[in-house]
């Protein structure tokens, strides 16, 4: 860790030089205690950047007090075998308290969430009733009746929409839990930054680093939880769009669209497999 809150600029430069040297200078003079990095504790000693390095990540957290916004910034340097260095910057932001808005914005949001929750519960009840009615009228028993008579494509789409909705709620609550953890560690981190204890460099780092490390780890977990929540919320409209096609069955001309999609499912599956592989290589 580079700790600008307690380290001076020459001390941070010395730490980077020791990391680049692999603590060889400290070993040559026979005093590893003068080394400011942790690489001297590794056996064998080696520079932190060598021929086998594939990626270097520099991460830090920014807090915007005006908007109450945490931003986790990750700068990645990717090294290929040809010697080229690619730079990729990723920024993930999360509000300190997203519910702290004006009354004019809170009321419509609360009404929309309530309507959405009622519709999800209604959909769940309707699907359970439909499954029970199908099983009762089936002549193949419970499990075979569900597999043969109930689990059709559009029923699976309905259950998938409810599952994704539940995942979105779960991940959102997880984000709020992680944000609360970051908020609880924030005052101690600010006090340790404003009023560092100890005179020597080692004493200051020993007192400050555990607090800063705990807060940074919590912020990192918050950013990962926010990414998972964002991906789930992005997938949810796609599932809802599939449910929209279900209503096309009521009109013969519109049903042509759904029948075409059902016929093209193998080709679409192959296309999305290739597309996901291509986009996955970007990350």
From TrEMBL:
Q: Which taxonomic lineage is given here?
A: Eukaryota, Sar, Alveolata, Dinophyceae, Suessiales
Recorded name of the encoding gene: pkd-2
Which InterPro entries has this protein been placed in?
Polycystin
Instruction: Please verify whether the record's keywords include rRNA processing.
Output: no
Q: What is this protein called?
A: Pkd-2 protein
Name the keywords, alphabetized. Answer: Membrane, Transmembrane, Transmembrane helix
Q: Which domain of life is it from?
A: Eukaryota
UniProt organism field: Symbiodinium necroappetens
Write out the transmembrane intervals: 107-125, 153-173, 224-245
